[in-house]
Amino acid sequence: MKPLVYYCRWQGASLRLRGRDDTAVWGQFVFTENGEERLQTFHFNLKTWQLTLTEADGEKTIQLDEMGTIV
Question: Looking at the whole model, is its pTM more than 0.85?
Answer without folding.
Answer: yes
